[in-house]
Amino acid sequence: MKTRTSPELPPLAVGVMVAICAVKVLLHVFTSVRHYGYFRDELYYLDMARHLDWGYVDAAPLVAVYAKVALLMGGSLWALRILPALAGAGLIALTILIVRELGGGRYAQLLAGLCVLISPAMLVMDNFLSMNAFEPLFWMGCIWVVARILRTGDSRLWIWFGVLAGLGLENKHSTLSFGFAVTVALLLTQHRREFARPWIWIAGAIAVALFLPNVVWQIRHHFPTIEDLANVRREGKNVVLGPLAFVKEQIIDLHPILLPVWVAGVVWFLRERRWRVLGLTFVVFFVLMEVVHGKNYYLFPMYPMALAGGAVVIERWLAKRAVWTRAAVVAVIVLAALPLLPLATWMLPPERQLAYMNGIGFKPGKQEVKQESLLPQGIADQFGWPELVNEVAGVYNSLPAEERAETGIWAGNYGEAGAINLFGPKLGLPTAYSRHQNHWYWGPPPQVYKNLIVIQWGLDDVRDSCTSYEAFEHYERFGMGEENAPFYLCRGVKFDIQKIWWRSHHWN
Prior knowledge:
globular; 24 helices; 5 strands
């Protein structure tokens, strides 16, 4: 693609960008840490940060780096959650840059930034630390590069696409699906000629090189991520949505008021020859996620692009209309978003959150089967962890010193293990071990224990494995139902934990 002369870009609305990004960060800082605690996965990521590696059973390596940064800042809840808030602000900035690349002026930049700001999907995604908060940054960074290539014809920019895509793969493996969608979109348009030039291949080589350490880790560990995904499918862990239900979830999660915006953006992309690659990328990815029964949030990173296109369409449509119509569109979108703001930002304490949900008739959709709670899973999984650790510590510290030295802790899942490893040291607890997910690689314990405090064990397992046992109840009203089960002090363990450790693992 030869470099061509392009129309001058509209001015960048720096003030608008800074203002919306500031609101984004402040909104999360003052809501996500006030009434709730560590999310289950955040506890797991902190354990990953204590065992930095080039890969994990169920995650690419960068999420552990984010958690390591949080640990270096003290490991507090605030330290964890300022990072996704900043990532969300970065996404808003990128969206505004994409709007400008598409020819959108100050109003389009404002509108797109507000849409990303108020979308419940984006707000929830940026409430807590996970790779999902950073994934849109890498993807929209790639889209910005593609838009620049489409506008200028400068194929050398593919190098930056390769860098961002490679980093995106180290953040989350689903970037492979994003890359597939971009590739198919190119092949379906006149831009397939890019594959006859060296730059896109150089970009691919850069992406592969950046992704290679994780690939090597997967090979050396016999591809545990593939086994984990196969187990999830076989066990039916995730809720599978039909085509209509899947589309309905997208509309609700993004917010119905934004439907005309992102649909207009996709349609405009498909109709405009210059931007058709962007529209096809969205459509291919959307269809792919439906075909493979992807979770509804797998599509969220694609919407800022569509919202950017829709904002440009609306700006042009309103250009010859009265000035007040522009303000009216913004006002309608903001006012429509306000009722869902308390749900999306966790600004209410649990009792009021539950009352508010019931008051507006909100019923959270399930992400996983066999997961029951009063509150949505993303909130419920933040309850009960300090209480569980305190209860375990009460049992452990009640033992005589010589018996404590021979007593270990075996957690049933990574949330329980992560909670004990975070809160436990101050209470005198030893490291918790588990065969769930990557914790299996961090075992077995360094000694053979005579006694174990076991969490998430069934009564039959305890009876078979212990000479004697004591049960201790644990219950948290707002927590996940699976955690409201007794844990046990197992005395006289009948097996050698080090010998049985490698016989099986729990990956799902």
